[in-house]
């Protein structure tokens, strides 16, 4: 068992291909957590120290079905948006770099565009889709005033 502090918040997502999605998230510097992974689930710590208490768990469809209410259906994220997952990063360059990595790994940059989204709050935010259509954002605070509010 790992000696590092366990995550305190978990996000679970269904994926069509566990191996392809594992490669995708590894390319974005998500850190695998072997202690929480098995043949149907792969767990990761979110990238960047500030997000280290968050765990992403990607599950095969059959595993994910074990966790949902009986009679309900798994959302197909390319057809329906059930949530947007936002990742805080240190600076604007990291936001843009994160999206470049996502696109290079098979994701889609900027599936939607909101001009100057968050600018009035001192934020810089861009979005991407993973291979299953789950929407993610990378965001940073641009100025010290915004950082003090956080």
TrEMBL record:
Transmembrane segments: none
Organism of origin: Trichoderma harzianum CBS 226.95
Pfam families tied to this protein: Glyoxalase
The Glyoxalase/fosfomycin resistance/dioxygenase domain, residue ranges: 11-137
Protein name: Glyoxalase/fosfomycin resistance/dioxygenase domain-containing protein
């Amino acid at each position: 068992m790992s000696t590092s502090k366990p995550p305190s918040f978990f996000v679970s997502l269904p994926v069509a291909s566990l191996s392809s999605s594992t490669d995708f998230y590894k390319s974005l510097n998500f850190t695998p957590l072997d202690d929480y992974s098995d043949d149907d689930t792969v767990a990761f710590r979110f990238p960047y120290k500030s997000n280290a208490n968050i765990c992403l768990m990607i599950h095969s469809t059959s595993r994910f079905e074990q966790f949902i209410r009986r009679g309900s259906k798994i959302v197909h994220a390319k057809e329906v948006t059930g949530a947007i997952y936002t990742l805080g990063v240190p600076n604007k360059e990291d936001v843009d770099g994160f999206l470049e990595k996502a696109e290079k790994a098979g994701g889609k940059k900027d599936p939607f565009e909101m001009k100057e989204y968050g600018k009035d709050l001192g934020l810089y935010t861009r979005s991407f889709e993973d291979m299953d259509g789950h929407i993610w954002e990378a965001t940073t605070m641009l100025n010290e005033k915004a950082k003090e509010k956080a």
